[in-house]
Amino acid sequence: QPPAPPPPGPLIIKEVRPRQPPAPAPLRIRQQAPPLPQQPPIILRERPPPKPASVTSQT
C-alpha cells in the first residue's frame, strides 16, 4: 500500500504582472487671460490761479 499523501498546505495564489512603465510627468497647462483694453491715461492738473483784479495803469 502506498504511503498516505501529506496534508494539503495553505493555498497561495499570486498575481504576477509585468512591470509598468513609470508615470509620465504631470501635464502643465498655462493659460493666460486676454489682455485688458488700454484705458486712456488719467491727466490730473492743478486748478489755474485766480485772475488778478484788473489794474488800470495811469500814465
UniProtKB/TrEMBL annotation:
This is Uncharacterized protein. It comes from Rotaria magnacalcarata. Residues 1-10 have a biased composition (Pro residues). Residues 1-59 are annotated as: Disordered. The lineage of its organism: Eukaryota, Metazoa, Spiralia, Gnathifera, Rotifera. It comes from the Eukaryota.
